[in-house]
Amino acid sequence: MTTQQDSHAATEAEQAWRAAIEHAAGCHACRTRGAVCERGETLLEAFNAVMHQQRQRRNSDA
Ligand SMILES: [Zn+2]
Fold this sequence. Notes:
Elements: H1 2-26, H2 28-31, H3 38-61
Residues 23-24, 27, 29-30, 37, 39-40 line the site of zinc ion.
């Protein structure tokens, strides 16, 4: 049961991370140093949020 939860969490984070890098790979603004891309920032924030959630979840489990 715990393993299933972990793999679901990993998938969630992986999807968020993949969305961010896939966007960056095809986005000129993201690949330009010094440029700010709102979409890229949003995707990275979403990934960070998932990671943060998982860390909190793990803390409350322990
Ligand atoms: Zn971008």
